[in-house]
Amino acid sequence: MAEEGPPEASIDFVPALCFVPRGVAKDRPDKIVLTQAELARIIGDTQQELDEESDDEAEEGDGDAADGDDMDVDDHVDANSENRNPRDEFQFQEYDNEENANVTSLANIVDAGEQIPDEDEDSEAEDEVIKPSDNLILVGHVQDDAASMEVWVFNQEEEALYTHHDFLLPSFPLCIEWMNHDAGSDKTGNMCAIGCMDPIITIWDLDIQDSIEPTFKLGSKGSRKQNKEQYGHKDAVLDLSWNTNFEHILASGSVDQTVILWDMDEGQPHTTITAFGEKVQSLEFHPQEAQSILTGCADGYVRLFDCRDSDAVNSSSIQWKVDGEVEKVLWHPTQNDYFIVGTNDGSLHYADKRSPDQVLWSLKAHNEEISGVCFNSQMPNLLTSISTEGTLKVWNFNGTEAKHVYEHEFNMGRLQCMRQCPEDPYTLAFGGEKPPRCAIFNIKNSVAVRRTFGLADAE
């Protein structure tokens, strides 16, 4: 009788990913070897956290039962939003059993046949070294009830893509943000912040290969048993934005209808913005104006806040109202007065921060919700968008309209996320729910894109 293999995962997808710029990672990340005492401490701390959560949940459950409430997991995640999950596009209940596959694809960069790993020991040793010409790609991966972040190495010149290492996460990842600020150090770092279904934001050092716990955390659930006070978010963290001008500041938006500006050097909230009527699904600091942050909310409002006065920030926003829920907001990288808005009905709206409450143009771009948008720093009138219907589209736009140029179907199910290579804005990475679940694609491979934007033919 043949041996049965491990059961197939019923949930297996990539909800978030992020590029790391070239030349910032250590060529050989540190490998940490824990002593027995250190390992015992980590296990003990983790068990204590689980016990405290279990005790608190039991107490809350008693209270809910007394009130006659019957709330399931999805209701708890989004109790303030008409029982809608903060990431409905994940639709856990609709996943079919699928054959497990590596979270990788070079798409149009190399052929599938060239992706077979080289088992030669010298090759493996070489792969351990991160070169100055390598990008890292941080891939959040959910598989059944397990969550991890896989660190991939991508070398565009060598047409190489492979997993370097990974580590387990405490909760399902919803957003990943790279930053070079290493709190408590006078040197630049190689760090990332991860927002999860859990309200605690974890900060990881990417130059440490075998991490089993984050460098530090932002937020605390509190504990009645330990008399610990809760601070930070109270529900899932949906988006993160690092302030590249004030590098110790990180912003987070949450299902709890707040935005928090964190002082990472202090490990505490600096400013909390509460001027929202629904969950905050997207946010981004302005590229040049360090005090300005743009937010997108499920109540259909885009808000621009001036954060210089923390006492007045909640009453000082400029607003734009669009139909539907705002899923994505993004500043133009070179024309900094302008931004794009993507909504849950598949629409794109282009606006000018100097013209409150009006948009320059609107477009029904997709049939389902917008799950990713990217401008192009080298081609100011080029815009890319994806939606949960699984399609990438390229647009040629100006201040009055956007014209369709090209589209590509990835056959990866619902596309959950899209990010852009920092050094080559034509190279995009995508996360989806069907094999290969993560793909890299260069839009210059399209003849229509090259002709429309006057680009040289691909070699």
TrEMBL record:
A family per Pfam: WD40
Basic and acidic residues bias locations: 74-90
SMART domains in alphabetical order: WD40
GO cellular component entries: nucleus
Biased composition (Acidic residues): 48-73
Sequence ranges of the WD repeats: 230-272, 363-405
Entry keywords, A to Z: Phosphoprotein, Repeat, WD repeat
InterPro entries: PWP1, WD40/YVTN_repeat-like_dom_sf, WD40_repeat_CS, WD40_repeat_dom_sf, WD40_rpt
Region described as Disordered: 44-98
GO biological process, one term: rRNA processing
Protein's name according to its UniProt entry: Periodic tryptophan protein 1 homolog
Source organism: Drosophila gunungcola
